[in-house]
Amino acid sequence: MAPIFQQGSEWNLLAALFIGIAFGFVLERAGFSTSRKLAGVFYGYDFTVLKVFFTAAFTAAMGLLYLNYFGVFNYELVWMPTTYVVPTLVGGAIMGVGFIMGGFCPGTSMCGIATGKIDALAFVGGIAIGVFFYGVSYEWLWEDFRLTTNIGKKTMSEVLGISPGIAVLIFIIFGLFVFWLVDKVKKEYNIKDVEY
Amino acid sequence: MNGRNLFGVVLVLVLGAFIAFTTVNRKVSREISPDELHQKIIEKTRYFTPEDVAHFIISEDPALQLIDVRDPKNHNKFTLKGAFNIPLNELLKKENLAYLDQDAYKTIFFSNGSTDADVAWLLATRLGYKNVYVMKGGMNAWIEHILDPREHSVIWDRVDDEMYQYRKGASKFFGGKSDEAVQDNAEDNKPKPKTPTKGKKKEVEGGCG
Residue B12: which of A69, A74, A172 has the nearest Cβ? Predict the structure, then answer.
């Protein structure tokens, strides 16, 4: 919350609490706290999640660039994780399998628990077991692997050698194309909207 | 595609297209890092000599902004033409910082010596204000070089002479000691280290007119 609170201020935790509550509320209102919604993306009967996350991504990307453009926001303060290509692919695959099997992502599972869903409770139990397994096997399984294929802190625009603005525009066009595509798929295969 | 969807798509595309042609400003915060500040401190490009300042005033440089950081008492007693007073302890007041928040003027701080002006420069630079400078030596140097110029060197060459003539001209302009008085003083003047000369050897006519 750099423009509102100082970096490293205790108020950041409080801000995080309210942002988290707002995030959970919106997830619930969008119907994300049911596992069927998320699983729908993979089984091809509901693409809401895909659309929401694409929209969220490019809204956030544009928001950052616009705030920067108006001089509110310091681009250099954005924390960025280092990219480890192969470990990211492996981790992404494991997480994807978890998504399909469980029908939740970590955030929505918490929303699911808040609304009293048993499968969400089981899912969070699974997360805890996974974290525990990762912890005990870290030294002999993951420690060396975790830091391989390090390409540093890279954004897509840096990898492609274009300006961040152009990269965001390309991402928006790609996102809109995907929206169009999934709508077409739904129409083509005559998939009905599902009520939960 | 219904109307609402179309509106969303167009809005996102227009916003995206606009931002695509902007460049990311990686330094929004104007405050400079300690490394940069250190570099600026040791560079010493912040100094203008009193001769430079005299030249700016005589030629009525429209981009000149002189700020006297001494206290109001000293300021009212004697100051440079066109200078206004922002005492050092009030420099960080919002209405005073507004004078620094521009790129059009070169702001030159001065005090009795260089120290207070240097502090003002340091604060302004740290806050990211551009075009701030210091008059080297402050009012002491001003009086010594401009209002009461003396021949400083035993080895008198053309450059020294031009500088001396220039100072004398400037002295007249600023109502310093008369020509004869300067000559008299020059007689019993002890040799002092030469002050570094900085480029600008301007014709004195402008000042004498």
Answer: A172
